[in-house]
Amino acid sequence: MNSKHYYNPKGEEILDEKIFGGNPSGFVDFNRSKYKWDSNIYDLMNANTWFPSEVNTSTEKKNFEQLTENEQAIYKMTFAQLSFNDSAQEEYLSDFRRLANNRLIKSVISLQIMQEVNHSKSYAVLLDACGNSDEVFNLYKYNDALNTKNQKIAQQFARYIDGNSVDKMLLSAMASVNLEGIYFLLGFSYIYLLGDKVPGARDMIKFIARDELNTHLPLFANIFKTIKKENKIQTSTIDSVYTMINDAVNIELEYGNYLLSQYPIMGVTPELMKRTVHNYANDRLKKIGLDPIFTQSDTTYLQKLVTKHLNMNEVKSNFFESNVSNYAKSSINLDDF
User: Fold this and answer.
1) What's the chain's Rg over C-alpha atoms?
2) What pLDDT digit, counting tens, does each position of 17-60 carry?
3) 123 part of the active site
4) Cα dist from 145 to 70, 78, 158, 262, 318, whole Å
């Protein structure tokens, strides 16, 4: 095995480092950011660090037991799937970081890895308080639809993460855009629909959704755009990007329709889910600099529900039972990304 070089005095200048390829020096210098968006996202991630203990889950078991059978099933199936998403993302980020060369980008990914672990911890804390942790975390063993979705997401992650070409790494980054930008969103909206019935779950999801949509999605959207800009990406690779997001839409709608058929959700229809996911997919394509391909409709109720909970400083906490839980405001304008 070749030894790794941790110090490279003959490396290229920091401002010349690409995300992939080249001869990096090995230094992390936040005062010399080649892209600007990388250090901005890092600052926003860091400013909004939170921990599961800041969410009051003391009544979660009682609140869960008062849900209808359908609502309890949606709660469990949603958290079973979301917990896999974060677990898969943490492992994938470790692999992506290892293959990247730009040290500042690697540093931002390191912080995201910590946040994904924090999300996994939050599910454990919430479900332990609810009293159904073992059942929920083992649902994939008994539910074919859940297992199928997890398998398909895992396959998207694994397909291109080998570092053999910039085209493959672009497609690998697209798998992360799909995860952060599509696979979480219906699950978030289901918990928001339950709302005040399960305030612990709702507030935990608020924190997680803000991480995913305010920093994690912008990070990988910019990584995608930068790889595309810095390298001569083949047309066939961009065609594969469209195939990947079309697959992601189908994966998300297949699981959503399964849940709806088994456990009808308040006011949710197959058409509403389809319009919501198509709108999200079009937005993600725009964020990575590509043309949308799905039928666009007016902003749906489910989208508005997610957006409403992205507003800063809405999470309330019990002063005597938790730390300050407000999600920090930041002067960073994400539109600049």
Assistant:
1) 20
2) 778 777 677 778 888 888 889 999 999 999 999 999 999 999 99
3) yes
4) 17, 12, 20, 11, 37
Altogether, the residues listed in the chain come to a count of: 337
* Of 42, 75, 92, 123, catalytic: 123
Q: How far apart are CA 226 and CA 25, in angstroms?
A: 20
Closest CA to 153 of 89, 75, 90, 217: 89
- Any idea which residue has 């073992």 for tokens? 134
Q: Which two tokens stand for residue 335?
A: 């539109």
- pLDDT at residue 164, rounded to an integer: 86
How far apart are alpha carbons 160 and 168 in whole angstroms?
A: 5
22: helix, strand or coil: coil
CA 76 to chain centre: 19
Kindly report each contact of residues 321-325 with a partner whose C-beta sits within 8 Å and lies 24 or more positions away, as own/partner. 321/56, 321/58, 322/53, 322/54, 322/55, 322/56, 323/51, 323/53, 323/54, 324/54, 325/50, 325/54, 325/55, 325/203, 325/207
Q: What's the whole-number mean pLDDT along residues 152-167?
A: 92
- Mean pLDDT confidence for 126-136: 95
What's the token pair of residue 159? 């397909």
Q: What's residue 178's pLDDT?
A: 97
SS3 68: coil
Domains of the chain: 61-315 (1.10.620.20)
DSSP-derived letter for residue 52 is G
In single-letter form, the type of residue at position 226 comes to T
Global confidence as pTM: 0.90
Per DSSP, the three-state class of 18 is: coil
Identity of the amino acid at 68: T
Transcribe 246-311 into DSSP letters: HHHHHHHHHHHHHHHHHS--TT--HHHHHHHHHHHHHHHHHHTT----SPP-SPPHHHHHHHHTTS
User: How many C-beta neighbours within 10 Å does residue 128 have?
Assistant: 14
